[in-house]
Amino acid sequence: MLQARLKKRLHGSEDDIHLDVALDLEAGRITTLLGRSGSGKTTILRMLAGLTRPDAGRITGGGTVWFDPQDGIDVAPQSRRVGLVFQDFNLFPNMTVAGNLRYALRPDQDPRTVEEMLEATKLSRLAHRHPAALSGGQKQRVALARALVPEPRLLLLDEPLSALDEEARIELQEELLRLHERRGFTALLVSHDRAEISKLSTAVLTLRDGRLSP
């Protein structure tokens, strides 16, 4: 589903890191990216999303080239159809839950998609609340729902549950599995939680010294 060869030089606190990674993500699977803090995991996700430009390489998603500098191709982030969920939620505080989801709609999408996603993620009763009135688990549920509204080709999850308490984390793990079963999206997850990795992932890749290995 997604193939990428990415090269990027990162300036670390001690030594530079030279990322040279090859990714081949199978459609409909959740793959975990494991590695030490500062090893470049978030940078890989940002390059796939189009938020950080690789020094060299090529990215192909669903048979479409997203990035190939030799051919002058660098598809804009909004056109790659990639969903992003981070640890810190990144919700718009001045918008309601429903408003945050509506913001993610593609121009050609049916607005009723928002109501369907609110129902699918059990957020309907919170639709008119603002983020400040939500718990951490509820905020992350909104962030996940918003990322899925535009029906992304790839969902990128950068330690989305690590800041939650154990009860909320387990609840969101179950929610993610349920949504994955229903929608069959392809996902790349960054996590350090071994139990979470075992529960959610079908494959694990380890990033070490700028290289990926199974």
Total number of β-strand segments?
A: 11
Helix content: 25-40%
Mean pLDDT score: 93
| SSE order | EEEHEEEHEHHHEHEHEE
How many discrete structural domains? 1
The portion of residues forming beta strands comes to: 25-35%
Number of helices: 7
Looking at the structure, the CATH topology is Rossmann fold
Helix-and-strand structural type: alpha/beta
Shape: globular
Low-confidence stretches: none
Biggest sheet: strand arrangement? 7-8-9-3-10-11
Q: Termini separation (Å)?
A: 18 Å
Oligomer: single chain
The CATH class turns out to be Alpha Beta
Helix and strand topology:
Blueprint: E1 2-10, E2 17-25, E3 30-35, H1 41-49, E4 56-61, E5 64-68, E6 73-74, H2 77-80, E7 82-86, H3 97-103, H4 112-120, H5 136-148, E8 154-158, H6 166-183, E9 186-190, H7 194-200, E10 203-208, E11 211-213
Parallel strand pairs: 3-9, 3-10, 7-8, 8-9
Antiparallel strand pairs: 1-2, 1-4, 4-5, 5-6, 10-11
Description:
31% of the residues lie in helices and 29% in strands. The protein has helices spanning 41-49, 77-80, 97-103, 112-120, 136-148, 166-183, 194-200; strands at 2-10, 17-25, 30-35, 56-61, 64-68, 73-74, 82-86, 154-158, 186-190, 203-208, 211-213. The strands form 2 sheets. The chain has a 6-stranded mixed beta sheet, with helices on both faces. A 5-stranded antiparallel beta sheet has the order 2-1-4-5-6, with helices on one face.
